[in-house]
Amino acid sequence: MDWSSLSCSACVLIILFLPLGASDDRLVPGKPLSPGTTIVSDGGDFALGFFSSGSMPSNLYLSIWYNGIPELTMVWVANRETPVTNSTSSASTLSLTSTSNLVLSDGADSHVVWTTDVASSSSSSPVAVLLNTGNLVIQSPNGSRVWQSFDHPTDTFLPGMKMRIRYRTRAGERLVSWKDARDPSPGSFSYGCDPATSIQMFLWDGSRPVYRSTPWTGYQVKSEGEFLITNTSAIIISLAFVTNDEESYTMFSVSDGAWHTRFVLTFSGKLQFQSWNSSSSTWVVFGQWPRHKCNHYGYCGTHGYCDETMLPVPTCKCLDGFEPTSTEEWNNSEFSKGCRRKEALRCGDGFFALPGMKPLDRFVVVGNTSSKECATACGRNCSCMAYAYTNLSRSIANGDMTRCLVWVRELVDTGKLGTSTDSDTLYL
Ligand SMILES: *[C@@H]1O[C@H](CO)[C@@H](O)[C@H](O)[C@H]1NC(C)=O
Ligand SMILES: *[C@@H]1O[C@H](CO)[C@@H](O)[C@H](O)[C@H]1NC(C)=O
Ligand SMILES: *[C@@H]1O[C@H](CO)[C@@H](O)[C@H](O)[C@H]1NC(C)=O
Ligand SMILES: *[C@@H]1O[C@H](CO)[C@@H](O)[C@H](O)[C@H]1NC(C)=O
Ligand SMILES: *[C@@H]1O[C@H](CO)[C@@H](O)[C@H](O)[C@H]1NC(C)=O
Ligand SMILES: *[C@@H]1O[C@H](CO)[C@@H](O)[C@H](O)[C@H]1NC(C)=O
Ligand SMILES: *[C@@H]1O[C@H](CO)[C@@H](O)[C@H](O)[C@H]1NC(C)=O
Ligand SMILES: *[C@@H]1O[C@H](CO)[C@@H](O)[C@H](O)[C@H]1NC(C)=O
What we know:
Blueprint: H1 3-17, E1 26-27, E2 39-40, E3 46-53, E4 56-66, E5 74-77, E6 84-85, E7 93-96, E8 102-105, E9 112-115, E10 127-130, E11 136-139, E12 145-148, E13 156-157, E14 163-167, E15 174-180, E16 183-193, E17 201-205, E18 208-212, E19 221-228, E20 234-243, E21 247-254, E22 261-265, E23 271-277, E24 282-289, E25 304-307, E26 315-318, E27 322-324, H2 327-331, E28 339-341, E29 353-358, E30 364-366, H3 371-379, E31 386-391, E32 402-407, E33 414-416, E34 424-427
Parallel strand pairs: 25-33
Antiparallel strand pairs: 1-10, 2-3, 3-4, 4-5, 4-6, 7-8, 8-9, 10-11, 11-12, 13-22, 14-21, 15-16, 16-17, 17-18, 19-20, 20-21, 22-23, 23-24, 25-26, 27-28, 29-33, 29-34, 30-32, 31-32
The structure holds 2-acetamido-2-deoxy-beta-D-glucopyranose (NAG) (8 copies).
Organism: Triticum aestivum (Wheat)
Function: Involved in sporophytic self-incompatibility system (the inability of flowering plants to achieve self-fertilization).
EC number: 2.7.11.1
């Protein structure tokens, strides 16, 4: 992929299709943006403007989309829940106030439907700039950022955007799906950090978990995948985990010159890495979660697990020492009843190792232990059924460098991952 020629054709597109009266890449006080005009980032990759939802043409949403991609693809929407009216008599406007706030007002009755609501000292000449990363930022004259759209994700993560797990002032954010393919109002799916543990991510449908990521195993940078595009170029997606006193977050990046790539929660509840193939003019899906039926949350029932090493069709199995609760249902691929113990557990039976597993859900984290102390913590409590131990010394986390997980409740949602870097050894 020759990136320079691609961005050059993008420039030509901008010159050809930029509507008359459009400003450049920024908004200043006193010069509002109204429907029909757009702001285009310096570099031409993204545009900010109004779009109308296909299902309700009179509803307008302020949003950011890829400029120069023929399939209109939104990466951010400001007023998902409060569309403005597309009125020819009195236009809706987005304006920047002298107090460094963006304000979206409805044309019909000029009431404010959305604002950045930054409590800031009035700055003489703020500016709102759409950066070529797709980030809309409000800056003070000295260059400090007062607000940025990257801090308020909708259904899409872009390279360089922080997927916050926790931070000092707020809990982690969630991606929230669109209602359907054409309606940006909030749908039922969301994706974010598990508030109970802070070390794993969940995809929910309402409050019901649909998919759970593997708990963080201490990586700082992990290659999520390398996808060969031609025999000489590839999209390399890598994930970084950063934790400091202020916040913990993950972030993804793509190799230089790669196609436009985004991580999106689709309206149908799938997490996808998508890249734009400009030869075919389509979004190509490079990764999807949940990957298959079997690794939906708890699909294999209590004490069951999804064997993801069984290809092409992963299937449910019972953990060692367990058998299907109902063999008949199990034989009919109905796994919800899960598995039961073959023999009653006697306290002090000892542990056996199951390597290559995804740690189960509903664990208790025991701080600051060695692997021996972790085994003892579980072994001395008869209601403890399993434990897993990871030494996080390869991570940059400061303080406690160990992770001892113990399970004292029923064992749900695990999988056999094989040699994946995310896998752990479970001691049962
Ligand atoms: C608003 O409606 C007019 C027709 O009434 C249409 O031409 C225009 O494209 C709409 N604006 C947007 C931003 O969709
Ligand atoms: C920049 O200006 C803002 C107010 O406009 C002020 O709060 C901030 O401290 C300034 N930052 C620097 C680095 O001077
Ligand atoms: C890569 O593909 C091109 C044709 O698309 C071919 O000419 C070239 O020899 C290939 N290079 C390698 C290293 O396979
Ligand atoms: C991109 O599109 C071209 C043209 O349709 C196709 O030949 C190529 O396989 C596509 N690449 C990927 C990675 O999907
Ligand atoms: C389930 O399948 C196994 C092996 O295929 C068979 O031995 C067993 O009888 C079946 N059980 C029931 C209840 O259908
Ligand atoms: C973790 O591993 C490092 C080296 O890999 C070792 O120096 C350290 O003692 C280990 N920590 C614990 C608590 O086992
Ligand atoms: C075993 O663990 C359970 C659950 O954490 C706890 O309620 C119970 O007190 C523990 N028992 C002992 C003997 O530590
Ligand atoms: C971990 O435990 C050791 C003693 O077992 C103690 O010296 C150390 O301060 C503890 N570290 C943390 C981070 O709690």
